Amino acid sequence: MYADVDHRARSLHWERGFAAWLERANESVRGPLGVTFELESARAWDRRGSDGPLEPVLGALESVDAGEDVDLVVGLVAPPVSFSGAQHELGFARVLGRHCVLRGLGGELPAAARQRLEVAVLLHEWAHTLGALHVRDGRGWMSPKYDADQTGFDARTLALLGTGLRHLPAARVALESQKAWARELRGAVEAMTGPAWEGPERDFLLQWTERVRASGVVLGPEGTPRALTPLERQRLAEVIALEKSGRPEVAAEALEPLAVRHPQDERVQLLACYLAVHLTPGLDATRERCERAIARFPDEPSLRMNVALLHLHAGRFDEARDSLVAARRNLEARAVVEPAQWADLAGLFLRAHCVTWAEETAARAPGLAASSVVMEQAARLRRQVALPPARPEAGTFPLPSLEPAREGDLVRAVSDVEALLHAGSSGPARERIAALSQDFPVSPSVALLQCELHLFQGRLGSARTACERVLAFREDAVQAHLLLGVLATNTRAHARARKHLERVIALEPSRTEAWHLLAREYRGTRQLRTLQARYREQFARDLP
């Protein structure tokens, strides 16, 4: 069950309310049909606006959840402004489908009357999904117009529903089961003669059963062939199970024939791209496969995220960033997005060093562990490279702005220059820093690199000035504190060294070099024993 924004706003305990609704329906169908409704899940539906016809709302529900793992998908929307008594104003379902949309009912109705109406509407629409027709005698639940005296299904409708219950759910996926259902359904419909049964629904069902009789593949409710045969659908399910069980190589091999035969099947092509990306990310064929899938299914965000993974694997960070931005647009265009998708996208943005976009995307999935990890890692990266915060706190020193699209370039440049310095290549490092100071003027990150360069060259005064400039912009710039601690240790400025090294440990307790330097500073003092105890608590071992 999916409850939209408007329904949830009007019903405080909407999950419990629908569960009670189902229980009342069970009292009406358990006896005559042996049916019990069980609620698989109650989910929030990110859509609003319930005025107008319900058929487009049903289409939106079908796009959110295909319902292949349940018997029925129900969408709940807000009550109508006014109610004429027509059933289609309170609910809508496709004949032979597996989805229905129901309007909640307003509190102006007496409780008993509202509950009777809720049961009638739910069972009316559910019966349509099993092939039940409208009955125009006004006495049962399949009447096109609701009446308070309606209490059940007529005998012929019960027989038709029993036919569906005997053959479903197998008749939706297995050809022989569908043909057996169609034969029985046709007999039940042909027996429904007279003015009460005549109409386009009866004609549609007779046409559908005839198509099933002549078809060599399973048909959907619309009477057209499914993209996959029943055997192929079973094979796809086996492939998914193989992947989930940790056997992606076997899954990819089993999927390949389906991927070749069904280039227009979205589920097959999404899975084929996903498996190829995780098994053979370095092959051109993998990239080509995923890009062909994007051309066929441009609105699918997971494809663009997989292509971004390929770019990241190959070091093509700009292309990865562009793919992730496109994936974000895809997700933003959807009415309902699983929070885990936002968290996955946030993690990829962070891998591309797009820190602000990673934080903004993770914020769309609050409460998820993956989102919290992204937030923590993004904050740590900002401290490490002295990257300005996306939104400075009120009252803090104003920081130079940096477009989110350029953050990745700067973060990677800092890493590259530090690698040059650690390798002893001060000349190339100096050239890169000079170029960065032109591209990113007044950047704390560039000032941090200048500090490291000056310290490497033994220009201690210039190093101290550069690092202090970094801290003026970002007091929590952990690398600047460490460099100033090293500098102070080398110049025997013990108080200053201890201050900066303690700040490093407070910001990043895992920076063991700061602990070791601080131990040297505290040698011969009572603080050393305290530091050793803190180290033991942090790392569960003794301070070397």
Label this structure with key terms.
544 residues; mainly alpha; Collagenase (Catalytic Domain); Serine Threonine Protein Phosphatase 5, Tetratricopeptide repeat; 4 domains; 5-stranded mixed sheet; 5 strands; 3% strand
Structural summary, described in words:
The protein has 544 residues and is mainly alpha-helical. It has 4 domains: 2-214, Collagenase (Catalytic Domain); 234-385, Alpha Horseshoe (Serine Threonine Protein Phosphatase 5, Tetratricopeptide repeat); 387-449 and 459-474, no CATH class; 481-543, Alpha Horseshoe (Serine Threonine Protein Phosphatase 5, Tetratricopeptide repeat), CATH 1.25.40. 61% of the residues lie in helices and 3% in strands. The protein has 24 helices and 5 strands. The chain has helices at residues 5-10, 14-33, 55-64, 111-129, 155-167, 175-190, 200-214, 230-244, 248-261, 266-279, 284-296, 301-313, 317-332, 339-351, 355-362, 369-385, 404-422, 426-439, 444-457, 460-473, 478-490, 494-507, 512-521, 527-539; strands at residues 2-4, 43-45, 73-77, 91-93, 99-103. Strands 2-1-3-5-4 form a 5-stranded mixed sheet, with helices on both faces. β4 and β5 form a beta hairpin. α5 packs antiparallel against α6, α14 (339-351) packs parallel to α16 and α20 packs antiparallel against α21 (478-490). The longest helix has 20 residues, at 14-33. The radius of gyration is 32 Å and the shape is elongated. It starts with a strand and ends in a 5-residue tail after the last helix.
